[in-house]
Amino acid sequence: MLLAEKKHDVRLWAREPEIVESINKKHNNCVYLTDVDLPRNISAWSDLVDALKDAEVVVFATPSHTIREIAEKARPLLKGTERVVTVAKGIEMDTFMTMSQVLSQVLDGVISDDHIGVLSGPSHAEEVSRHMPTTVVSSSNSKQTSLFIQHLFMTPRFRVYVNRDIIGVEVSGAVKNIMAIAAGIGDGADLGDNAKAALITRGLAEMRRLGIKLGASQETFAGLTGVGDLIVTCTSRHSRNRNVGFRIGKGEKMKDITSSMTMVAEGVKTTRSVHLWAKSMNVNMPITEKVYQVLFEDLSPREAVHQLMTRDPKEEIIF
Question: Total structural domains in the chain?
Fold first, then answer.
């Protein structure tokens, strides 16, 4: 919507034929954001060939676990001159790659690494689509591409800063979804505001600890993609990850929650990949570990909280 309102022609690719038909004929999305009217210069396509024809910029907005698959299908359709932007937030299982790293690997030889960038920050689509003030960052290994993304997306209601620390930006975007699940569990179990404040603060410490291990700048975690995105994802009613945690805190089982959702909660898969990644690098992430055990090992939320609260006493270490 941002790009269309700036007079760009926007082509969306979707798997679901009913969504393609709804966008093209009714100018709304019949599954997601159903009450939002889409500009007429947005069209939808079921075939990637049609969607990517003559594209100048390609934005990957699919769930993080599908980025590699979609990029592999897109690769032979690209000319090599496009700028590529990812807005997906996650860490790939097994490879432990960020989304820009996945794109760089898959598109190697077609798209220069300097033409790949990230747009990230506290930006729920429910609010962006209604022109509510939102502020995010663009990041890339290339300053020129970061500035290109900034200029492309920026509007009076959507402010974009440049942050050159792409690993810090992407680690923040992934780990905050894990903390949102934890925050939701706390809300669902009525653990109170003190617990949520502690969760957000110590979750930020885990995020920074992992990022710094990977060479990120610690200042990034005090910015929009760090504490900013962490706050909104842990507190907002729009947060799918918080909602998953809330339902777990109320006693629902994970399999029942996922089967009832139409949209992906990225934090579930990210919890598994980040937990294994942290263990492989000997990075201490106790909240992430407990969320993993609740999601995948049937640890009860109450027992997870008890185990976190009764760890050995120590000094407060931020990273």
Answer: 2
Q: State the pLDDT confidence band at 263, using cuts at 50, 70 and 90.
A: low
Query: Do 251 and 131 have their domain in common?
Result: no
Same domain, 197 and 304: yes
Q: Which residues are marked as active site?
A: 176
Average pLDDT, the chain: 95
For residue 256, what pLDDT is reported?
82
In a domain, 315, yes or no: no
**Structural domain boundaries enclosing 69:** 2-165
pTM of the full structure = 0.94
- The Cα 278–Cα 293 span in angstroms is 14
The dihedral region occupied by 136, where left means phi > 0, alpha psi between -120 and 50, and beta the remainder, is beta
Whether 233 and 241 have beta carbons less than 8 Å apart is answered as: yes
